[in-house]
Each structure stands twice: as C-alpha cells, then as structure tokens.
C-alpha cells in the first residue's frame, strides 16, 4: 500500500519486492478491510499471483498468428497507422 497525498488516493497492490519508503505491506485481511479518509479514493490493483486471463496484447498476438497461418508466411507486418494530428509529443492516430 502507498499513498498519493496530492491526489488524495491510496493504492493497494501486490506485495513489494523490496523495501520502499512510504510503502507498507498488508496482510490479506487488513488489505480487504482498508478504508481511506473521507474524500480519498482507494485504488485496488489486481493481485499479480492471480491469473487474470488473456490480455488484449495476448489476443492481438493470437489473431496475428492465425492471420499469418491462414494467409501464408509472406504476410508482412501491419502498415503503420496514419497520424492525423500532432501536438507536441502526442499524436492522434486514425482507426483502421
């Protein structure tokens, strides 16, 4: 668990791999019963030890593998998306 005082947020996630200042390890019971001060938000991150199922990255990789298997090995990578607007280091990408 850690706090972001500027955002009035408490973040509860998996156990830390090393000691970090301002971070605290809680047992499961205390983690489930955690309450924050009035007006604060509690964000509970998924436990890394629990299988969350396939991510969208996994599904996209699987879809690409199926596409390559169906169309043959000559299929190249998907074309780069067209950038329609740029503002500083951010860019708006058009849907394909």
Indicate the proportion of strand residues. Answer: 15-25%
State the share of residues found in helices, binned by percent.
10-25%
Give the termini separation: 40 Å
Strand element count: 5
Number of domains: 1
Low-confidence stretches: none
Q: Compute the gyration radius: what is it?
A: 21 Å
Mean pLDDT: 74
User: How is the largest sheet built, in terms of strand order?
Assistant: 1-2-3
User: What global shape is seen?
Assistant: elongated
Task: Classify the oligomer.
Answer: single chain
Question: Class by helix and strand content?
Answer: alpha+beta
Major sheet characteristics: 3 strands, mixed
The helix-strand sequence is EEHEHEE
Please tally the helical runs, counting DSSP H or I stretches of 4 or more residues: 2
What key phrases describe this protein's structure?
96 residues, alpha+beta, 5 strands
Model description:
With about 100 residues, the protein is α+β, with helices and mostly antiparallel strands. The protein has one domain. It contains two helices and five strands; from the N terminus they run ββαβαββ. It has helices at about 30, 55-70, and strands at about 1-5, 10, 40-45, 85, 90-95. Strands 1-2-3 form a three-stranded mixed beta sheet, with no helix packed on it. A two-stranded antiparallel ribbon has the order 4-5. The longest helix has 16 residues, at about 55-70. It is elongated. The mean pLDDT is about 75.
